[in-house]
Amino acid sequence: MSKSANRITLIVLSLSLSLYIALASCVAISHYDQYAYTQTTSLKVDALNVMDLATEDYSAHQQEVKQATTNLDKIYEYERNRKNNDITIQLWNNLKDTSGHLFIGFIRRWKGEGKLRPAFIQESKKQVGEAFDIIAQLESKKITSKQAQ
Amino acid sequence: MATVNFQDLFDTLKTGVVDLAKGTVSDCVSEATTAGQNALVEMKADIEDWSMSIATGEMDIKDVEFLIAGRKELTEMHGLEQLGIAQIELDKFKNGMIDLIVGTISKVI
What we know:
heterodimer, A: mainly alpha, 7 helices, rod-shaped, B: elongated
């Protein structure tokens, strides 16, 4: 190989290595996490089941509500401690928002009114289900750590 | 049971969007009207169902108010989801670049 060819190769190599380091160190969003996905889909089922109970008095189902909200807090804490996970955390914030109108907002209303109408519960369940699906589907689209290597 | 002419109700809502835009965002009435009417069209099926439920007494106005607010929060969540998907695509591009660089270097050397 000639001297100039060696030099070009060296320059290309240096530039490539710089780009490699820059790209490798800059991850846009967290990688796919099987545990987070499984917990999200599992909690969706629990949350929708609890919502079905809202035709009955809240005071009779405090235990079931507590179980579901505790599980929500657990997955939230898990998500909060994952790197580059801001978007997923914001999504969970919507579901958890006590002044909102998704899962925790529904629980607040149920607690406040004692019981809720079946037609309303069914419509609200569609929205809460969709909210959980958004979180699960975003997770499922993420690249795996193996793909990132 | 009260009867609901849904098309009349929907037309009234669309006119209401124009009036609301004129009364609140005078600098961009046209854009606000379009955005508001598009949002109405997206919610048309829900609004129809919920209106019927009010008419039949299955839901009350507070229920529908809650559901409309829930729909708004879901719209925000879909926006965040799209942002997340864009970031995932960026990660895939970066991986592709890394593979390209590594592959090219190994061929050259």
